[in-house]
Amino acid sequence: MQECSNFRWSSDCAGKESAEKSTRDKSAREKNSGEKSKTILHGGDIFTASRRYGIPVNQWIDLSTGINPDPYPVRDIPSTAFQSLPYESPEFLEQASAYYGNASLLPVCGTQMAIQALPYCLPSAPVLIPEIGYQEHAAQWIKSGAEVSRYPSFDVQVCRRWIEQRINENSRCHLVIINPNNPTGLRFSPEQLKQWAERLDQGGFLIVDEAFMDLTPGDSVLSHHFSSNMIVLRSFGKFFGLAGLRLGFVFAQEAILRRLREHCGVWTVNGPAQAIAAEAFADTAWQQNARERIAIAAEYTESLMRPIVDRMEPLQRIREGLFSSYLVKTDVALEAQNFLAQKGILVRVVDVDESYSLLRTGLLNPEHMHKCQRVEQAASTFTLSFEEDRR
Length: 391
Known about the structure:
Layout: E1 2-4, H1 16-26, H2 46-53, E2 61-62, H3 80-83, H4 90-100, E3 105-108, H5 111-117, E4 127-130, H6 136-143, E5 148-151, H7 156-169, E6 174-178, H8 190-199, E7 206-209, E8 230-235, H9 237-240, E9 248-251, H10 254-264, H11 271-282, H12 284-312, E10 316-319, E11 324-329, H13 330-342, E12 345-346, E13 348-351, E14 356-361, H14 369-389
């Protein structure tokens, strides 16, 4: 769900063309030597938040990630999963292939491992990357010395025109698509992605990050739109709510998988993770129920946060299954983030430009009543203090 008022990045808003030009100017090809080294702040860092705000770790409510708050139940794990060297078990590979609808896969210790390795496994070429999105993609390509251009990542039409023009100018490039985009919610059809892949010259690859695709598996390129020059990344931990397992998958042609395997080394996925994932992949009843429960949790969390969100007067509201994002003035986003953190509630702020940021929130489990009551109370309190501060 995306709602728009009058912000420039939305297709129904004024100023769209100027935004496109502005983004194009800003994304003039960046070289590693020309970009300052930055520390990327990820969601879920409760330990740092605890030190900063003086609140014990076990008292925090983490809404800074897009992880299912109702995880797959981990049952008894065979002792051999802990005792044996973690070679990839046939059952694990078979269940993963069936779940994703594609057998050309490589399991990795989280897709972050693959994101870091890919720049060194592909031919040298310019790389097109979303301006707003999971920033490790840009960081790793820049670190490798690649020529990086950033495309607008709020509006589908603006983004499509930008990519089309760049491919027309130079079709020997790598194109990174986060589908759906975290945190902007931008998404493309598998047909569109296949078309772009086919237009890239030999040596150019389409890299599709489908970390949040489990809620809408029919929109994945893996089953019916996979091309030999596609590389698809899938995350296990978000939908199944088990991010601590550090499990992901790369789908690609055999030559690319071989290079990645050489780069990542042996035993990249531990035995317990393989055992849990094999069972979870086969549990279709749990998966269907999880999709329904996530939809309920998203609506419920949004309703609890509504007083604080409405008071921020966002220019755009985005709901993408496991997270919601609200486009607001940066000072407002930081004020809300700090206020909630003082209450032991962690949310995420993602910079958009010099003036605007996205406040991103994850989901609450409606069955965790104490946490829900704390969030509801905090939102109510923020509403009152917000009004007083601006009288």
